[in-house]
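Appendix B.2, paired examples.
Example (i):
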Amino acid sequence: MNTNTQFLTWVFFDNTDELLNLSTEKVTKLEPQVAQLLKLFIYSNGELLTRDAIVNHIWPNIVVEHNSLYQLLTKLRRLLSDNPKQPRIIKTIPKKGYQFIADTQPYTPQKTNETSNKKKIVTQLSWWKLAVLPVVIACGSAIAFYSQNTTKTPQPKYKMSDLSYDLGLEYNVDAHKTKDLIAYIKNFNDLVFSNKQGVILNTIKFPSRIHHPSWHSELDLISFWQYYQDKCILHVYKSSGQAIHRSKGQKCTHTRASSWQSSSQLTINLANGAHFKPFNYDLHTGNSLELPVILHDGDTFQHSIIAWQGKSYYLITSADHKSRLITLDGTVHMQWEHPITMLTYDPKRQTIISNNSDKHHTLIATSRDGQQQIIANAVQGIFTDLSVDLTGDIYTAVETWQVNIRDKDELPIFSTTSIEYLPVSNLLGETAFMSKRSGVCEVYLYSEDQVKQLSYNQGYEYVNHIEWQPQLNLLLTNRDKNILLYDRQGKIMQFLPDQISTITQLGWHTNEQVWVYDTQTLSTYNLTGQRLNNFTLHVDALLYNNQSAQWLVFDDYTLYTVNDLSHLTNRDNWVPINTFSKQQYNQHRNFKLRDNTLYWLSSWSAKDYIWQLSLEEASVSLIKSDELIWHYDIAKDGSLNIAKMEAIEGDIKKLSLIDPQ
């Protein structure tokens, strides 16, 4: 029987999963798993609940990582304003479990108040995540640096405090160097201005996703990006909300924070495809000019920052995954032995603060003479943004999340706090997928209600593709430029194809042959790595239909069929079957074929869309749109499974510098 339960100043309505705060008369609609957890605690009658008991109740018959319960518990404690260090409601019993310690009683309000209380504002929980930028997980620990004329600095000490503690996602924080201002993004579309104590001063809402606010070092001017359709728009505002500048839309896939050179000149960082490029942008003219950063073979540009003496420096990642900070003349000012994915300049101590090599759980400061010091460790979650003002205080975002691969009934097949993606099922009901839980991307197999790890790797190698063999005995994947084959026990074969650049697509041509495409050449190989065919080909995307023995070619918003491999280089042999809209075609990826139906994923205004096209009828239909759909899968019965980031929490933290004595 449903009951309404009161404890302290809270009332839980378990028939509607609503939580009433009697002191504020505010009603909050709980997420299903949060409601389940609270219900379990309330009905436990104060008994100790072990971790296993809670996990089995909330996630029955599902593999769940250790951190999933912690995140759910953290969310519930925040809703209840319950400090885990001085608990009034939920007490942690070290190494044993958790106990509900608040007294409970049935809630029987006066009739005149019950209706009004239930009609109070319902606070919707925000639980979506950022895209946009690729999450790079790095392994390794050694760091080497090049430097000049820097004296030894004392070990800094910091005190961490929360500037935001609301449910939902706060991220992309930037602190003004000289003024009492910070700015950050909340729940994708809101630009929030606050002082450096966390008091909100102003909020500006936008109709589509915004990213990467960046303050001018002295003026009340802030730049940030807005994703609109297939373009990115640069805005400049004042903290009052006054719009100063809006650029023309530039076609792009990703952005990073800009750096101010002057009151009218910025270095902007854009990617239209796989790699970023730096540009000088003029606010007066709206013109941009690509900067001539010196890159070696295999190098990729990552980011630009303003550092020593107010000069511009450029972060480069090499083919062997090392990072270096250079100026336009090619001089190397700092080097790391692992990938750097976020960094900022500390003007007080004249150091670079960046991620370590441990999945963004640690921040380090590095001086130009190679000294390295640990700044802070994230107890739970990872650091995702960095900013430092002139006093040496650091402002950062710490994020946690859960990733679910969900079935047609929205139930999770697999739940984790790691990065799960690229699920691909076969007609036997088995699902292979990738995970970055171990620091690098590994291959897992979900079969007969069990999850099995197939690969074990070290280093910085990443996986971008996976496909079942037509006869379902093998899995085909890549690891950087290498091709790997797995059976149900693990790796059985690996070879390096003779491709010019990074693999963009691959697949099975027959049960004994695979094809590999790198935007310039299409090659086929046997399973020992011997190249059988090689063609020069420049198209937007490519797919082979094993069922019809035809190639599907995507080029210039049109889908073609080609009957033979040798005919791919002659466009006269291409037969058009469908023309796509810009929304259907923009950033199209993750192509899948099932029963002569084509599926794919696209993005529009930084939102994700899953489409399907019957190759027999040549008709396109939208089957799913949502925020942060990482990947999707077509299940054995033809239903849609989705791997998406959920239950995201992000908070703005302040690391206040305590000067050493």
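Example (ii):
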Amino acid sequence: MLQRSRRLTALVAALLLAGCASHPHQEQSPAPPVPDGVRADVAILETTDLHSNVLGYDYYKQKADPTLGFDRTVTLIRKARNQFTNSLLFDAGDTIQGSVLADYQAQVHKVGCDEELAIYKAMDAVGYDGGTIGNHEFNYGLPFLSQVTGTPMNVDGGSAQRCAGPHYPLVLANVNSARDGKPIFQPWTIIHRKMAAFTPDGSQLSVPMKIAIIGFAPPPIMQWDKLNLQGKVTVTGVVEAAQKYMPEIQAQHPDLVIAILHGGLNAAPYTSDMENGGWHLAGVAGIDVLLLGHEHTDFPGPRFAHMQDVDDEHGLVRGVPAVMGGFFGKDLGVIRLALVHQQGRWTVDKSKSFSQVWPICPPLMVAGKPTVSPSNCVQADPQIKLATDKVHQAAIAYVNTPIGQSNVRMSTYFADEGDMSALAPVNAAQIDYVRNALRSSHPELANTPVLAAAAAFRTGFGGPDDYTDVMPGPLTLRSAADLYFYPNTLAAVKIDGAQLKAWLEASAGRFNRIDPHATGEQSLINEKYSGFNFDQIQGGIGYVIDVSKPVGQRIEKLRYNNKPVSPSQSFIVVTNNYRASGGGHFPGLDGSNIVLAAPDGTRDILARWLQAHPTLGANDLPPASWHFAHLKTRGAVVFTSASDKQSIAQTDGLSDVQQVRDNSDGTAVYAIDLSH
């Protein structure tokens, strides 16, 4: 026993000695200086707006979708790591929300404190170096965000408990606790990596690098998630936050500073609440690299080709290398960063640095135009499915819970053209809920007309399968999730007739102005105006949209119960918390006129309404409330939708819609005759 005790004593002493030798206060041998002229190429890899699309799977159509999914992005990540000796991988936010799987883990079978979210588990399987927080991270509330990111927060409803989170640092510099004014995440951090570098004679060196990362969320989160955030956090502009923390960062003498912004590019004059402040952030001294997101598009890409001080060929924003890697796992952003060591520090050689966006489905040339084909997509990395398949299968089983039967088809293929079949059940459910709720919560409003606003969330932005299509037959929770895509809660606002008209005028910005005398084709849809902002209002009203008029002057014959709406007439309009709190910048909607903020999610309200109508028929749904003004045009007025859906348009009363050509990519061009 004595001999064993002596061995243990010696072992403890050795461990203590080793601990002292590595104590941070002990002097250590400095790394040898890096000679001037040494070069290093570093690939900065970026994902953004994954929206919890862990696997390439469509939960609404119950089938694999090879055109999206993080499991295929991982294949590109591994390819890039094989191609580049040095690489770093970051995520720019909107990570934990946006799919059936995400809602299942947040709202149905909530993950425990010791359990990692599926999307973070998948990301840890490939290994990330850092990330930031997007606006949709706040959709499930601060307690959930605190838990799943493993970040204790000193906010109302927050917890000091540290739960399982991603195995990489999350940074966020512009969102602070209302309690103490301190950031709810660490605003910035330093990561240390060894990089391969080369002397002018070709000799290879291994050099240490200190990389600083700082993150930013879009400031309008205070509008978009007002119910979750008001009184709990405050937000500052991205430029102000960068300027606040850059001196701290520079005091650490980093070799590289990377700004990770969940936002895009806007060269308009800067404001502290700017949604897409990347152009201005690039002008903050000391930022070497800019990672972008939020806009669900690519940079470099044609959308930014004519923006001031933006090099759309090489991917530079005001001289700073930048990239935005698409959305839903469809792409990987790649910056090839050429570094040269000069005068004792690393600098970016901008003449040899450039950005690219690598698609998981490289387009094929079909009939002279680039076309995405599922047959040309990279293979999924099998490790991701192994890591997440159990919860994936549980989510599938959940959304297949039966809730009723339908005798009507409800789709959004022609929602922009007046087919309200998929919006009608949403509006009907919203109206029923609020009418019942007002009797107890606001009896003085019980006789005020209740209207409802809904937008088609899936109108083809993500490709030919990105449409809602609930077939006649059994209805499941999947049907409700397809009809209402986002996890919004319900809210109702009190407005007058003038505000109602202004709301509809803003929605009609979805359309381009049509010139009846033009002889060539004219596009009906304004692609710069998001489909989720085209609110269509039902509940006893009717109106006409004249697309030959300028925006703001298009709504005609606005009537309620077949009588003209007066500017002073009172209405309750049911919408979602995003719109009621100012999302989309609609006139008269800023959160001040909310009369009901429901705790229930709109999707749950819809599911219960469908269960209360176990055999849904056309008579259960409100009729379409609007149509286009009669307009005879010399040339064709066209729009794009999924191909071979003309019969749906005909069945739903749009006899003036005709398919005119197939695009050979799952979409087709349709013409609409506005003279009917």
